[in-house]
Amino acid sequence: TVMFIGQQKGVNTKMRQYRNFGMANPEGYRKALRLMKLAEKFGKPVVTLIDTPGAFPGLEAEERGQGEAIARNLLEMVQLKVPIVCVVIGEGASGGALGIGIGDKVLMLENTWYSVISPESCSSILWRSWDFKEQAAEALKLTPQDMLANKLIDGIIPEPVGGAHADPDEACRKVKAEVKKLLDRLVKSDPEKLVDRRVRKFCDMGVVLSAKAEAQRLKKGSRKSTSS
């Protein structure tokens, strides 16, 4: 048994309007957390499916604690004592994606993206126009290949010919196979070690050392070992 939690956009305009284009309100993140805690109580793994342009930015969402709801999810997910696998199946934008994106393993479908901001929004902020979205996308390094190279995700799931939208059933089978493979390994882990590895995984992200600083660190280490 697995607890599945996902963001749903819909496949046509009417469905997307009904689903608020995949932009969750604070209540959505709180519902997700409630289900994660339920999974933890019964010792069941959690799988999250991420597809959002971001959390809903409306005034009413802010008044109801959008930021707090996402922050609470980050805090609780990193401490959850059951395996968590996260899969980006479409857009993965900003805190809206991170709100259900803290996992032991994070995967992306090969034609998806994951970033702090969408290229269009980045372009509108920096250049006051959407005309530079291609440059913004290049600078953001948001592709699965870039994310894997920077050790921000753990794997890329190949899509069917023509993309996941062309053959959703085959795409689901590929996602299922990869997730099952990971869960088969993760469920054997000790809960405390699982949490410890997850904390270290996310704490290690974003650590950047310049070549000069790294050379100096290695030089100091070499001197210490020589003197001892």
3D architecture notes:
There is one protein chain. Helix 2 runs parallel beside helix 4. Strands 1, 2, 3, 4, 5 and 6 form a six-stranded parallel β-sheet that branches. This protein has helices spanning 13-18, 26-41, 59-63, 66-79, 94-98, 119-127, 133-140, 144-149, 168-186, 191-203, 211-227, and strands spanning 3-6, 46-52, 84-93, 105-109, 113-115, 155-157. The chain is an alpha/beta fold.
- The H-and-E topology, N to C, reads as EHHEHHEHEEHHHEHHH
Largest sheet: 6 strands, parallel
Average pLDDT rating: 93
Question: Alpha-carbon distance between the termini?
Answer: 54 Å
The parts where pLDDT drops under 50 for at least 5 residues are: none
Rounded radius of gyration (Å): 20 Å
Secondary-structure content class: alpha/beta
Helical run tally: 11
Q: β content, as a range?
A: 5-15%
Overall geometric form: globular
Query: What is the number of beta strands?
Result: 6
